[in-house]
């Protein structure tokens, strides 16, 4: 380890405060951490929720029976490098060796894994591009900052908050929605920050303030149909148990329902959703029939289109109760997206991931929304297009983002970086 670089990234104040917190929250042996993690898993079980725990291969090698027990309880164990090191700044070959060693540790101990998270969310495009396609199905490294929605707090430790934030390098929730997307051969599953350490140790939130902020975030993502990936640290699991239980109770009270899922479940659904399509057939008399090819878990949403085969769902959207729909010849514009053949294929794939139905056409006047020729479209531009369509109020047919008629999704994830003070000491010499 390059101690000078390590210290420069953190600063003396952060190192001292973090060290004191670790002394308070961990024991010399793993028993304390193991008890609170297992209690947290069992708490989530009561609400039909199971967490995803990115875990270094070194921790798996040290505590294989405990990690196996967590997996048997329904928790997902994800790869988190072998050593807990910054994969953004080390040589690419070293980063790949770390992930390879972690996969081998998982295999040695019978731990199943389909995804990974870099320590400190330290991903980089070159690393994702270099990953062998058989290693992982998903990545969860893209942080989305909820800072625009944070209340003003007079007493805070900006040093702790900002030090953690610089590692995470989040996008802003103002410009990026928390919705999975394809990145290289992977499904990228975003997560929200500030995490629990930033809220408690950085912003000095009380337990009541944290509970309120989490519920407000849940309500916001339910309104927008997003994924709320709660990022926690198991060292605080016992302290935050009441806030987590309050949040899970709030999840169960929302209508339409929230899909409770592990990261591996979200990745699997996103790949399943990839196969959905709509076949559009125009009859000679002018009627248009649209048939939907999708799994039984899929929901088709319609708005602004009278039909007896739909029931109210959320806002203006209704759930179509069949797998086909015939539109009369009198319909003014086709209620899906018309796309010029020269529109960006990458952007088109992104729109399909968001559930939009598209049709190649040279007639911009035949559709409620038309996408003109454009060789490339930036992510913010795509978000703007999706928001404009959503806010337009025009008739629309599309696939729902989430399975089983859920409005939004919720996942709990927490990095099992260490289970004892000795584990932390080992990290410093790795």
UniProtKB/TrEMBL annotation:
Organism expressing this protein natively: Levilinea saccharolytica
GO terms, molecular function: hydrolase activity, acting on carbon-nitrogen (but not peptide) bonds
Domain NodB homology: 43-129
Protein name per the record: NodB homology domain-containing protein
Biological process terms in GO annotation: carbohydrate metabolic process
InterPro entries in the record: Glyco_hydro/deAcase_b/a-brl (IPR011330), NODB_dom (IPR002509)
Membrane spanning stretches: none
Gene3D superfamilies: Glycoside hydrolase/deacetylase
Pfam families xref list: Polysacc_deac_1
Taxonomic lineage: Bacteria, Bacillati, Chloroflexota, Anaerolineae, Anaerolineales
